[in-house]
Design goal:
The complex is a heterotrimer. Chain A has helices spanning 2-28, 36-54, 57-80, 86-109, 137-141, 146-164, 166-176, 178-183, 188-215, 226-236, 241-261, 268-296, and strands at 114-115, 218-219. By secondary structure, chain A is mostly helical. In chain A, helix 1 (2-28) runs antiparallel to helix 9, helix 2 runs parallel beside helix 4 and helix 6 crosses helix 7. Chain B is mainly α. In chain B, 61% of the residues are buried. In chain C, 31% of the residues lie in helices and 25% in strands. Chain C has 17 helices and 22 strands. In chain C, the strands form five sheets. Chain C has a six-stranded mixed sheet, sandwiched between helices. A six-stranded mixed sheet of chain C has the order 16-19-20-13-21-22, with helices on both faces. In chain C, strand 21 and strand 22 (484-490) form a beta hairpin. Chain C is globular. Classes of the chains: A mainly alpha, B mainly alpha, C alpha/beta. Chains in contact: A-B, A-C, B-C. Chains A and B meet through helix 4, helix 10 and helix 12 of A and helix 6, helix 7, helix 12, helix 14 and helix 15 of B.
């Protein structure tokens, strides 16, 4: 039982983690991405279709990432170049892309909301020899697909990228003090656009993970609001890749437990609210801390 | 005293500002339709006929516009105070569930009392749902956009829990409460159309809102505080209290939207209760630019899209989802090119 | 002026003129800034210092005249062009990025990297240490900007200019944010940089500092150069006189007949938004029928006094009484009913709601009085009549009171604000910069309004950067320096002459 839950938890963490890391970089560069969920949805659909037609999961992932990235670019341009409010544009993308996906399914496949294709190339599973046989450790480490490994590898990589590279430093400057960045000759808007494209790529991968990594079919509710859970994760993680990852893992664990506990009298819907409640609590605590620091004259 | 539109700009300017994002979205959707092999002009012609072609269609459109008038109004009230409330979807759920609960439990109440009582219960529930985000915003400066967005998801999950557990109708498998008492239902205005007394409530509130904005001290204070909070504070208005009041009022109207939907259309509370009324309301308020007339027109536009979309699907092979595409794009275009200066400023700094 | 045979100045202004509308900010300014010197520019508010600095580093272009760099006439297309000539500026608002370390802020946009885009941390650290050594300071380069004290941030701004290759530094009132000990360190740093061959332009109105650090000083007044002199040949008194000019008294104002105390400020200590104490243990009283003016150079606590008296800002200690009632813990919304009125210094951001109509701006704050409102419903026709008569009385020229107040000229906008704040019988008016950006006729009108209000028994606390205005209107003048009252002068007394030097810290040591 515990092995199953842990294995499922790692499984459910991956899509949220991917999207959350993208959203985190995006937010650090100064844009709160409310449209992550729509980019996941697009990635999920494109990933499945390409996986079915090419038979290659790698091409499918690349296509899903591109789909998410294109959406990210469009969204970013609306915000940075047309001065549109990021929240409204994000919600607008969520609504429009959901409609677009269903419109496409009906127009192209005549199906309402669900798409099941033959010959979908699923993500392969990597069994780690020795470790697989150890209880708990095996469940956590073995039997996962490459994307899960990539997602976790991206955590230190993102931390390193932001801290140690030229682009990372400039992204932080674009988000932290755009005026100062501009005064120093940087282009904060372009940097912000780049970060949104990255968020789109990551969310697209997260979406593809859901369709070709987990269930093997697509339906319109496949993301189940995971783009917003990702938002909760990087808010809760307070822009740190590791805290964000831990938070994504926590949410993955909730997810896994909830599936397990269904029919056992535990109200799973209550468990579902936890990520969102946590965000409100964190924001409140942070605002409170800021107020106290100001009162002390720091 | 003057309302939002100054006389010099005339009528065409707000009208153009309202129509432009709508036309832009229709154009984009038209491209999509063309790509999918439909003639967009035929589709839009059919949409127009199906939404305004005869009395029956018009009543259907108005019925579909009813919850949108209310959610648009709820959001406009908060926007007017400079508060970016995106949490009305949650209020619709909370208000709808509460109204339905009263409607099927307090059936012993006399008919004349039960309906108003159920509506009031939904209204109060919606209002209280916005208390925490309102207080957090006013007292601690916590970003209301994120908190209200999160409160939506919390409301939806909580309602799902209640409707699957404690409030599940006996013998029902499909996540719904029992039906409310007949005396708790909003009377229909033109049977068999679903247009009901909720529409009259919505119109009455819209008129009240228009009068409130022009003729009351609170309406004036809200507008000035929304335009310039520092000015309002220097003029001696209690801005934090104003923010809390407007959040409560916004939530109350959102809760009423849910109550009207539950007691007028659905007759109970079910999962997936609202097809995004709270989010469409954002588009309605943006497109209607906070004016009573604008909100009415925008709500009717979206109501027309929703009803006509459902019926043209029967006559042609155009998927109804084109409506969502238009709606989402309207939201984007409404803030992209014709965004209010205030909204732009919000994230410019 | 140096003769034609002198070596080219590092930076030179020749006949620079710049006007904004009717305001002449710079009027044919000639100034040579020699290489390897610290050149101070002093002047009161509105003397034209900021405009000149903006022109010298390419933020603004002159209407007339030329800027010469190393003797070559140059027209900067922007700050980047000036920077390419080695001219950089430290603004009063620092251009630093929170969330980044000192080192990251230093190298930002000019990062030493390898060919994979990785930041070469060792190279950055070496550069940082070398700069710090050169400047004779020691910095914890791994500290986050938000944790760094203000003087460290300022040093970093200077070092960053050096890191990026500037050798001519323009510093805009660099000591305004510093404590006295830090001022000493900054002066030492600037001297060291000068000795290393840098050119420093130092804008200030603190005479002690100028005498301590500068080689040459240029005094500006009303957009013109009063004099450029070697510091060795000047004294504080000379500079003060050149800065302030001839002080005028206003003979037309009748003597006041002060009544009961209306505004009592007792032992108030207050901080600015950054948390620095700006007002220390300050007490003062304004009586009915009297105008009390605060004379002081900007940044000596005026903003915090206004915030404390109006309730728009919190105070750390002390009490505020209005019309005999304790108002210490009241917000502004609780003080207005006690008879407080407030004319904001920031007309566009706080004094008026620009998008709202003239009428709304005129009535706001009194719209709930019983004459205009019953049970929360506005009496629109009563309001319209009242607003129209008020606007007529204050001479607001308008097409319609329904137009946005933004459609009015600055002078008429201020008349709307004054009309609102004096209407309805307030007992005390806090008037901050009452004539900022107002035309001459408007200034005279507003001055008369304040005097009339006083004669009707009103109390006025006048906070203005225009010393002439303070002297002309005030029955009593309190001199503010470093958050404390350092002197008091009554109308017509002989002390008027001393105000200038008191304002500049001449009286008591700060």
């Amino acid at each position: 039982m515990i092995d199953h839950v842990l294995h499922a938890a790692v499984l459910m963490t991956t899509p949220v983690l991917l999207a959350a890391l993208g959203g985190l970089v995006n937010r650090i560069a100064g844009l709160v991405n409310i449209g992550l969920d729509s980019m996941m949805l697009a990635g999920a659909l494109v990933g499945l279709i390409v996986a079915a037609y090419t038979g290659s999961w790698m091409v499918a992932l690349a296509a899903a990432a591109v789909a998410g990235g294109v959406l990210g670019l469009l969204m970013s341009l609306a915000i940075t170049r047309l001065n549109a409010n990021e929240i409204i544009v994000g919600l607008g993308f969520t609504i429009a892309v959901a409609g677009l996906v269903r419109f496409f399914l009906k127009s192209a496949y005549g199906s309402s909301g669900t798409l099941s294709l033959p010959d979908v190339a699923p993500l392969p599973r990597i069994t780690i020899p020795v470790a697989a046989d150890i209880p708990v450790v095996g469940a956590v480490l073995s039997g996962h697909d490459p994307l899960t490994w990539v997602a976790w590898l991206m955590v230190p990589l993102t931390a390193w990228f932001l801290a140690r590279t030229r682009i990372g430093l400039r992204l932080r400057a674009a988000g932290g003090a755009p005026q100062a960045a501009r005064a120093l000759g940087l282009d904060p808007l372009a940097l912000r656009d780049a970060s949104t494209v990255f968020a789109g790529l990551m969310a697209g991968l997260g979406g593809a993970y859901l369709s070709i990594g987990v269930v093997g079919i697509f339906n319109e509710g496949i993301t189940a609001g995971r783009g917003f859970i990702a938002l909760a994760a990087f808010y809760f993680g307070n822009n740190g890749p590791w805290p964000t990852a831990l938070c994504a893992l926590l949410f993955g664990l909730f997810d896994a437990l909830q599936i397990r506990l269904q029919g056992h009298g535990v109200p799973t819907e209550i468990v579902q609210t936890l990520p969102y409640v946590m965000v409100v609590v964190v924001l409140t605590a942070m605002a409170h801390a800021v107020r106290r620091r100001r009162a002390k004259g720091g | 005293m003057t309302s939002a539109a100054s006389p010099s700009s005339g009528l065409w300017q707000p009208a153009a500002a309202m129509a432009a994002p709508f036309l832009a979205a229709l154009a984009m959707a038209g491209v999509l339709l063309a790509v999918a092999g439909h003639n967009p002009f035929d589709v839009y012609g059919l949409l127009a006929v199906e939404s305004f072609g005869n009395i029956k269609r018009i009543t259907a459109t108005l019925a579909a516009a009813t919850p949108l008038i209310l959610t648009g109004l709820a959001i406009a009230v908060a926007f007017r105070a400079g508060v970016f409330n995106v949490g009305i979807e949650g209020c619709v759920y909370v208000g709808g569930l509460t109204a339905a609960f009263v409607g099927f439990t307090a059936t012993a109440l006399p008919a004349a009392v039960l309906l108003p009582f159920s509506l009031a219960a939904g209204l109060v529930a919606g209002s209280l749902w916005m208390l925490i985000p309102g207080v957090l915003k006013a007292r601690l400066g916590v970003d209301e956009v994120v908190t209200t967005l999160m409160f939506n998801f919390i409301a939806i999950s909580l309602a799902a829990y209640l409707v699957n557990g404690p409030l599940l109708a006996p013998g029902s498998a499909n996540s719904a409460t029992p039906m409310v008492a007949d005396t708790a239902r909003l009377p229909r205005l033109a049977p068999p159309s679903t247009l009901n007394a909720g529409f009259l409530i919505a119109i009455a509130l819209l008129v009240l809102y228009g009068l409130w904005g022009r003729h009351t001290a609170l309406g004036l204070e809200t507008r000035l505080a929304g335009l310039n909070a520092r000015f309002a504070a220097a003029a001696g208005f209690n801005v934090p209290l104003l923010v809390i009041k407007m959040m409560l009022l916004s939530g109350a109207i959102g809760g009423l939207a849910g109550a009207v939907h539950a007691l007028g259309n659905v007759g109970r509370f079910v999962t997936g209760f609202s097809p995004g009324y709270g989010f469409t309301g954002i588009a309605v308020a943006l497109l209607g630019r906070n004016s009573a007339v604008g909100i009415f027109l925008a709500a009717v536009f979206f109501g027309a899209l929703a009803t006509a979309g459902a019926t043209i699907q029967l006559f042609s092979d155009v998927p109804i989802e084109i409506v969502s595409v238009v709606q989402g794009m309207v939201m984007i275009f409404a803030v992209a090119q014709f965004g209010w200066p205030r909204l732009r400023r919000r994230f410019a700094s | 002026m140096a003769g034609p045979s002198a070596p080219a100045a590092r930076l030179e202004a020749r006949g620079i003129g710049r006007r904004f509308g009717a305001v002449i900010a710079n009027d044919s300014i000639d100034m040579r800034i020699e290489r390897g010197t610290v050149h101070a520019i002093v002047g009161g508010n509105g003397a034209g210092k900021s405009t000149l600095m903006r022109i010298l580093h390419g933020m603004d272009r002159p209407d007339a005249g030329t800027v010469l760099v190393d003797g070559t006439p140059t027209s900067f297309s922007g700050p980047a062009a000036a920077f390419a000539q080695g001219i950089g500026m430290v603004h009063q608002e620092f251009m630093l990025v929170p969330g980044l370390t000192l080192l990251e802020n230093l190298v930002l946009a000019h990062e030493p990297t390898d060919r994979f885009g990785r930041i070469d941390v060792a190279a950055a650290q070496d550069a940082g240490h070398a700069l710090a050594r050169q400047a004779g300071v020691s910095l914890d380069w791994s500290m986050m900007i938000e944790d760094a004290p203000i003087h460290v941030r300022q040093i970093l701004e200077i070092l960053r200019l050096l890191y990026r290759g500037a050798d001519a530094l323009i510093l805009d009132e660099p000591t305004a944010v510093l404590a006295p000990a830090q001022v000493k360190d900054l002066i030492a740093l600037l001297r060291k940089l000068r000795d290393d061959g840098c050119t420093v332009v130092f804008v200030s109105h603190k005479l002690d500092e100028i005498l301590a650090v500068a080689d040459t000083v240029t005094v500006l007044r009303s957009g013109k150069v009063v004099a450029t002199k070697p510091v060795a040949q000047t004294t504080k008194a000379m500079l003060a006189e050149m800065m302030i000019g001839q002080v005028l008294t206003n003979p037309t104002a009748r003597p006041s007949t002060p009544g009961k105390p209306v505004l009592e400020v007792a032992r108030v200590t207050a901080r600015d938004g950054r948390g620095h104490v700006r007002v220390r243990d300050l007490s003062m009283t304004v009586h009915a029928g009297e105008i009390v003016g605060i004379a002081g150079v900007a940044g000596n606590g005026q903003d915090e006094i206004a915030a404390a008296v109006t309730g728009l800002g919190a105070i750390d200690a002390g009490t505020i009484r209005i019309a005999g009632r304790d108002a210490t813990h009241q917000p502004l919304s609780g003080r207005r009913p006690l008879g407080l009125s407030y004319l904001s210094p920031d007309r566009a951001g706080e004094g008026l709601c620009l998008e709202a109509s003239i009428a709304e701006n005129t009535i706001a704050s009194r719209h709930r009085r019983s004459a205009f409102c019953r049970h929360g419903v506005l009496k629109r026709s009563a309001i319209r009549r009242h607003v129209e008569s008020l606007l007529d009385r204050y001479g607001v020229r308008r097409a319609s009171a329904h137009l946005p107040v933004a459609s009015l000229s600055g002078g008429n906008q201020q008349r709307v604000a004054v009309a609102r704040e004096l209407d309805g019988g307030p007992s005390v008016l806090v008037a901050c910069q009452p004539t900022r950006g107002v035309d001459i006729r408007g200034i005279a009108f507003i001055h008369q309004c304040l005097l009339d209000f006083r004669d009707r028994g009103g109390a006025v606390l006048l906070l203005s950067e225009e010393l002439d205005e303070v002297i002309a209107l005030s029955d009593r003048i309190l001199v503010l320096y470093g958050g404390r009252i350092t002197g008091e002068v009554t109308r017509g007394s002989s002390g008027i002459d001393e105000i200038g030097s008191l304002m500049l810290g001449g009286g008591q040591s700060p």
